[in-house]
Amino acid sequence: MSLSELPFYPVEFYEVLKANDPDHYFKAVHVYKFNAGGTRYLATFEEYERHVYVLQFCLEESSETDDKFDRIANVGPAVAKKVLVTCASIGLSILRENPLASFFFTARPTADKLGKEGKGRNKRLSVYQYFAVFFFDSDHFTHSCSDQRGSYLILNKKYEQQEPDAKEKITDLLDTN
């Protein structure tokens, strides 16, 4: 099954906020918005050097809060799946624009589980990993999961061929961020 066969929400490209310093490792943030069953979402892809994009998404209504990425919307599994498919579709559109793009995300425990689950794999990471493997096949991407950090790297093999130490360099870049 391909992405075009899966239902996803129509996405509104909102804006690109470019970094003030073109020599800095942070390049821009690409902002998208979409409605999901009456709930408005904000998806951002932070662009860094080395062709890496960091995905984050949240409810638009909580986008100004410190815990915006820890909150969970009780929307049910069908809507949640469609939200994740929508985020993947945005990532794939970025990949069409930048064929060397790699992607990174963190999956922190939800606010109600913070401190209870401890470090290591959490439910969000398992769900996000499932979608990452489905949409970004192992023929074209190397998948790297850190249960300890709750993070996941989808490394583009085209970029990895150009930069043999790509994984280490991207990981170092994001660790300093």
General description of the model:
- The protein is α+β, with helices and mostly antiparallel strands.
- It has one domain.
- Helices cover 29% and strands 31% of the residues.
- The chain contains four helices and seven strands; from the N terminus they run E-E-E-E-H-E-H-E-E-H-H.
- The protein has a seven-stranded mixed sheet, sandwiched between helices.
- It is globular and about 45 Å long.
- The N and C termini lie far apart (36 Å).
Index terms:
alpha+beta; single chain; 4 helices; seven-stranded mixed sheet; 177 residues
List the SSEs and their pairings.
Layout: E1 11-18, E2 26-36, E3 39-48, E4 52-59, H1 77-97, E5 102-106, H2 123-135, E6 141-146, E7 151-156, H3 157-162, H4 166-176
Parallel strand pairs: 4-5
Antiparallel strand pairs: 1-2, 2-3, 3-4, 5-7, 6-7
Short description:
The chain is an alpha+beta fold. It contains four helices and seven strands. A hairpin with a 2-residue loop joins strand 2 and strand 3.
Helix fraction bin: 25-40%
Number of domain modules? 1
Major beta sheet, strand line-up: 1-2-3-4-5-7-6
Q: Largest sheet, if any?
A: 7 strands, mixed
Tell me the series of helices and strands, N- to C-terminal: EEEEHEHEEHH
In the predicted model, the low-confidence regions spanning at least 5 consecutive residues are none
The residue-averaged pLDDT reads 86
By DSSP (H or I, 4+ residues per run), the number of helices equals: 4
* Secondary structural class: alpha+beta
Strand content: 25-35%
Rg, Cα atoms, Å: 16 Å
The general outline is globular
Number of strands: 7
- In angstroms, what separates the terminal alpha carbons? 36 Å
